[in-house]
Design a protein that fits this description.
The protein is built from six helices and eight strands. With about 190 residues, it is an alpha/beta fold. The chain binds flavin-adenine dinucleotide.
Length: about 190
């Protein structure tokens, strides 16, 4: 269970609608698609942007609370099961496809974007996003990246890692780093 002071800090960051800590709410996030793994989190927190993630991570760091990031929980290796308790960081609010750049064939998405939504959106423009896990109707790009997900089309076209050019990442101390960019090669100064 979260200390009241920690709950207050987290609520201040995301708002009370985006923090779950009732037992019946937590139960839903105590397992994923992996058989035989279950553990209760202390809270489920739903960030709406990078700044909120930074603030949540800082609180978790100060309070020594583990974080289990979660897209749709379809992984098969208990990656989102909060085996040490703490916070499940749920990305359902960050599900936008922000930009499709047809000229240089890149898309920019939030981590909670659903795989099939991305596939459909680029196909509307006559483009092709190959990674096609069987879970694509609900799996998220954040989960796909972390699992190196692929499907049948991977045999010919490769898997998710072959299509990631850049990432914005929040480190455990709350610092944000950016890797890569919209081009095959780029340098940052
Ligand atoms: C019915 C079914 C069919 C499947 N078919 C396939 C298949 O064909 N091919 C295949 O490769 N896999 C398949 N899988 C496995 C699973 O769907 C994939 O691993 C998928 O990529 C997980 O996506 P998710 O959004 O559910 O991620 P989650 O299960 O929520 O998370 C997966 C991992 O990523 C981490 N994570 C999630 N979001 C973030 C984030 N924003 N930042 C940091 N870490 C994050 C989690 O902590 C966890 O470790 C299948 C699973 C099921 C249940």
């Amino acid at each position: 269970m979260l200390k009241e002071s920690v709950k207050e800090k987290l609520t201040k960051i995301v708002g009370e609608n985006h923090l779950l800590d009732r037992k019946d709410q937590l139960l839903v996030y105590s397992y994923d698609a992996t058989p035989n793994f279950q553990a209760m989190p202390d809270a489920v927190v739903k960030p709406g942007c990078t700044i909120e993630i930074q603030e949540i991570v800082k609180v978790a760091n100060e309070e020594k609370l583990p974080i289990a990031p979660r897209g749709s929980g379809t992984n098969l290796c208990a990656g989102t099961t909060p085996t040490a308790g703490g916070i499940v960081l749920l990305f359902t609010r960050m599900d936008q496809i922000l930009e499709i750049e047809e000229d240089n064939l890149t898309v920019t998405v939030q981590p909670g974007a659903v795989t099939l939504d991305l596939i459909n959106k680029v196909e509307e423009k006559g483009l092709f996003y190959p990674p096609d896990p069987s879970s694509m109707k609900i799996s998220t790009i954040g989960g796909n990246i972390n699992e190196g997900t692929g499907g049948l089309r991977g045999l010919k076209y490769g898997v998710t890692r072959d299509y990631v050019l850049g990432l914005e990442t929040v480190l455990p101390n709350g610092e944000v780093i950016r890797t890569g960019g919209k081009h095959k090669r780029c340098s940052r100064v």
